[in-house]
Amino acid sequence: MNTNLHELAGVCIKVRTIGILVMSLFFCVEYSEAQPTPPQVPLVKMTLSQCIALALKENPSLGNAVQKTAEARAQVDEARASARPKGTITYEHSQVYTADIREPSIYAVPGRPNEYSIAPYDSSSLGLNLTYPLYSGGKIEAGKDQALANLRRTEEEYGELRMDVALDVTTGFFASLRSRRLDEVAQEACRLNEAQLDRARKFFEAGSVPKADVLRAEAQLAQARENLIRAHNARILADSQLRYSMGTPPTEPLDLVEQSEYPFPHVLGEPAALVIRALHFRPRIRQMESLIAGAKALLRSARSGRLPSVSLLGSWSDQLQQSQYLSSLRDLAVTLQSSFPFYDGGAAAAKMRQAEAQVAQAEVQLAQAQKQVALEVQKAYLAVKDAKERVASAAVSLTQARENLRVAEVRYEAGIAPIMEVMDARLLFTQASISSVQATYDVHVASAQLLRAIGEAYY
Fold it and tell me: Which among 121, 141, 145 is positioned nearest to 133, based on CA atoms?
């Protein structure tokens, strides 16, 4: 009887456990169905021009450059204001207390203090002062020229920065496309090695090839899969770098549009002609020229410290309220003021030497910038030429490598070629595919770099 009771209790426990599991599963299903499915972020198809436009809008460094340009414009306005007349209005109000002490008389009682009275009154005055610089020895004009040169330098710096951002995005755009193509090449290499492994196993089972062929095919497939992992990670990294250059969130998906033509004009020509164009259009050169202009303006300002200055001054004042004992006061004055610094302890001469040194430094920087720009143009020109030649060479190599792989596979299946011949042919085909992809995108990147070196915008 006890045994039956124990068995019945065990059955009840099992039934209860099963019921709990069923109810839990039911609630889990209900909960999962009740949960909203997170929305999928749609892929944004973007061309190169769209990527550059977005980067020029979102890049924080450009925002900082815009503020620097606005600051330079304000400095120009400040310099221009120094040549205009200046006026001030002053108003004063005071309450004055005066004591009226009576003189003692012959009828004064001894020991009695003198009589006096306090008469308060209000005094207010209004004044207007005007100053107009007639001649400053060229200091005001030099200040305006220096501010304008600084504004031009800031604007050219902003233009140079825009070109840098556009080139970074262009390089990242084609690096991302190249990583996608290389990922496809790695996937194709894995498929070819898998097919070769299947053939080797079939031939080994048929007894036509040794076990070593299978082992070599397995080793090469493992290497191909490792290369595929690297290619996939390189693609993720290239996309992240492109998002960083564009200033977009790192998790935002991108769908880059492969175009048949890109906005790169035909820029190849004689290197000497390209250098001349670069020295004329490159913002960096104009930036250095503006730096020289600003230094020369500073030199003129320093020289003005030895020259006289002439100003016209005008003032008007009126006391609005007076006491009953005072008459009304109203003044009007016009003054022609001139000053001549006959001795300053050598400060003006020291400023002139500093300004002359700055002019010399700016001229040296311009010469160095011209040489650097010429070198950049030469490098970019050779890079474009090299990439275009490699495209043609890579196309021929890829065609030959594909045919070589086909012949090697046919020979292996016919039993007249070892597996090493097929493996070498497959490796050669993969390398030719990689070279073709790299050369194709290197042409676009090199063209953008050449335009950047010349100073011509392609966006």
Answer: 141
